[in-house]
């Protein structure tokens, strides 16, 4: 009986683990190394102190990154490349409130979730807060 319970528990643990890269398997956006430290004390990243105030950071990822504070100590970061268009066909997405808008097909993507109603969501990066610095990486 103990073996059955152990099997059930291990099976539950195995299936409860998530694959963080599942939403990042997008054939349109290559895997570029991202390792950005954004100091919220600087004027260009000062909006990261406030919830729902996204910031565009150029020169990272495929077309830059969009970072937004989503709650107390929590952030999201997404690549600014249109996830459902070839990389060379569109410029970086623009910010419209809490949405990122693709320049090619005008699809809006929610910056809390990265979802936009198309086949692929926005490519997401990991984010950690350390003091006044927001670290975006993959």
Helix content: 10-25%
Structure class: mainly beta
Number of H/I helices = 1
Enumerate the spans where pLDDT stays under 50 for 5 or more consecutive residues. Answer: 18-23
Number of strands: 9
Largest sheet features = 6 strands, antiparallel
Mean pLDDT: 88
> What strand line-up does the widest sheet have?
1-9-8-4-3-2
How far apart, in Å, are the first and last alpha carbons? 43 Å
State the shape: globular
Order of helices and strands: HEEEEEEEEE
Radius of gyration: 17 Å
* Proportion of residues in extended strands: 25-35%
In brief:
The chain is mainly β and 138 residues long. The protein has one helix at residues 2-16, and strands at residues 35-39, 55-57, 65-71, 74-79, 94-96, 99-101, 108-110, 124-130, 133-137. A 6-stranded antiparallel beta sheet has the order 1-9-8-4-3-2, with no helix packed on it. Strands 5-6-7 form a 3-stranded antiparallel beta sheet, with no helix packed on it.
């Amino acid at each position: 009986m103990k073996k059955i319970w152990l099997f059930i528990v291990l099976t539950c643990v195995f299936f409860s683990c998530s694959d963080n890269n599942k939403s990042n398997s997008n054939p349109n956006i290559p895997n570029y190394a991202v390792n950005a430290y954004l100091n919220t004390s600087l004027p260009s990243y000062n909006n990261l102190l406030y919830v729902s105030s996204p910031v565009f950071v150029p020169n990272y990822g495929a077309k830059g990154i969009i970072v937004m504070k989503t709650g107390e100590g929590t952030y999201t970061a997404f690549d600014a490349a249109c996830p459902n268009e070839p990389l060379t066909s569109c410029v970086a997405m623009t910010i419209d409130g809490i949405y990122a808008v693709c320049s090619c097909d005008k699809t809006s993507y929610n910056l809390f979730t990265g979802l936009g109603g198309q086949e692929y969501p926005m490519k997401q990066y990991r984010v950690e807060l350390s003091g006044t610095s927001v670290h975006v990486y993959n």
